[in-house]
């Protein structure tokens, strides 16, 4: 088998250097995101404060696993690759990465559900079963990717089959690590991806639709026009914030299924999309939620003499709504 054409952008050295830079940039951004959530969340977002905190924690866990500890160098169309991080355990980090991805999407579902419950469902049957639904959703988070790990092939035979799937030998790391083969057939990983995608997607889509529908017809439920406008802006902000998850998770993940040719530069782009998710998600959170955005702009407003921003608390009781675990 011939070696692939040399290209620095397709090399493991480029991937490792890029991920280290991303980690260095992401660390202060994540810390700033924590500060905004804990210290700058206003009263009308009180019920969402710790849900945003929970979502932010899942994003950071994913970033640390993917961009620092794991650094996966995948070799599609073979379902195999190397871990370039400080700890050589690609199987473990693949499992953790999938778990944290589903943790992020489940946290998005819980955020939408909490908004729906507070505004529209405190006196419905959903009040009695919501905690069970939320707890069950988090229980299955570490289970999505677990079955496929019992089917990981014997590595010597798996490496032989994986090298045959490649048209040429890509640039490899010079640290002497062995190729890790996750699967020799696509069926198992495809089923795992479909399950891990479909359940949170259905959950998020259901409660997003319920929020939008009830906000459109909110006048009939007795909610004031001012409250509807504020909650509408908040739901829109959540939609924008979570759209980055859809773009930076769904597209790369499905590339594992549909990529049937070898292009190591494209493989690096797939994992790069995962790596920048944490930075993108935090920045979008800060700039789409007005209280956080105003805090960022406040030094410039003081410098140029602009006034401060006042917030009006909506006429919806937040104290009665328990915050999901």
UniProtKB/TrEMBL annotation:
<dbReference type="InterPro" id="IPR019422">
    <property type="entry name" value="7TM_GPCR_serpentine_rcpt_Srh"/>
</dbReference>
<feature type="transmembrane region" description="Helical">
    <location>
        <begin position="18"/>
        <end position="38"/>
    </location>
</feature>
<dbReference type="InterPro" id="IPR053220">
    <property type="entry name" value="Nematode_rcpt-like_serp_H"/>
</dbReference>
<feature type="transmembrane region" description="Helical">
    <location>
        <begin position="269"/>
        <end position="288"/>
    </location>
</feature>
<feature type="transmembrane region" description="Helical">
    <location>
        <begin position="132"/>
        <end position="152"/>
    </location>
</feature>
<dbReference type="Pfam" id="PF10318">
    <property type="entry name" value="7TM_GPCR_Srh"/>
</dbReference>
<feature type="transmembrane region" description="Helical">
    <location>
        <begin position="92"/>
        <end position="112"/>
    </location>
</feature>
<keyword id="KW-0472">Membrane</keyword>
<keyword id="KW-0675">Receptor</keyword>
<feature type="transmembrane region" description="Helical">
    <location>
        <begin position="234"/>
        <end position="257"/>
    </location>
</feature>
<keyword id="KW-0812">Transmembrane</keyword>
<feature type="transmembrane region" description="Helical">
    <location>
        <begin position="186"/>
        <end position="213"/>
    </location>
</feature>
<feature type="transmembrane region" description="Helical">
    <location>
        <begin position="50"/>
        <end position="80"/>
    </location>
</feature>
<protein>
    <submittedName>
        <fullName>Serpentine Receptor, class H</fullName>
    </submittedName>
</protein>
<keyword id="KW-1133">Transmembrane helix</keyword>
């Amino acid at each position: 088998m011939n070696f692939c054409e040399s290209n620095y952008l397709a090399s493991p050295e480029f991937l490792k250097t890029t991920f280290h830079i991303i980690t260095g940039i992401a660390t202060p951004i994540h810390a700033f995101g924590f500060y905004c959530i804990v210290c700058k969340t206003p009263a009308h977002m009180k019920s969402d404060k710790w849900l945003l905190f929970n979502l932010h924690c899942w994003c950071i866990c994913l970033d640390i696993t993917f961009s620092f500890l794991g650094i996966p160098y995948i070799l599609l169309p073979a379902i195999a690759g190397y871990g370039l991080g400080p700890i050589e355990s690609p199987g473990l980090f693949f499992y953790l990465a999938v778990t944290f991805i589903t943790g992020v999407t489940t946290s998005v579902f819980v955020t939408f559900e909490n908004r729906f419950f507070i505004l529209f469902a405190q006196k419905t049957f959903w009040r009695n079963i919501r905690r069970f639904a939320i707890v069950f959703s988090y229980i299955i988070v570490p289970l999505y990717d677990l079955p496929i790990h019992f089917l990981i092939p014997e590595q010597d035979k798996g490496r032989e089959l994986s090298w045959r799937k490649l048209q040429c030998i890509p640039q490899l790391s010079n640290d002497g690590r062995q190729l890790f083969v996750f699967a020799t057939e696509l069926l198992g990983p495809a089923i795992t991806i479909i399950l891990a995608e479909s359940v949170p997607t259905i959950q998020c889509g259901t409660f997003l639709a319920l929020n939008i529908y009830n906000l459109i017809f909110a006048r009939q439920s007795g909610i004031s026009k001012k409250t509807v406008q504020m909650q509408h802006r908040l739901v829109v902000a959540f939609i924008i914030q979570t759209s980055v998850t859809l773009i930076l998770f769904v597209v790369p993940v499905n590339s594992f299924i549909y990529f049937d040719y070898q292009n190591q530069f494209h493989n690096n782009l797939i994992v790069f999309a995962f790596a920048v998710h944490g930075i993108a998600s935090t920045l979008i959170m800060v700039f789409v939620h007005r209280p956080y955005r105003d805090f960022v702009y406040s030094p410039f407003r003081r410098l140029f003499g602009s006034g401060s921003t006042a917030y009006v608390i909506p006429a919806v009781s937040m104290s009665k709504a328990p915050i999901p675990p």
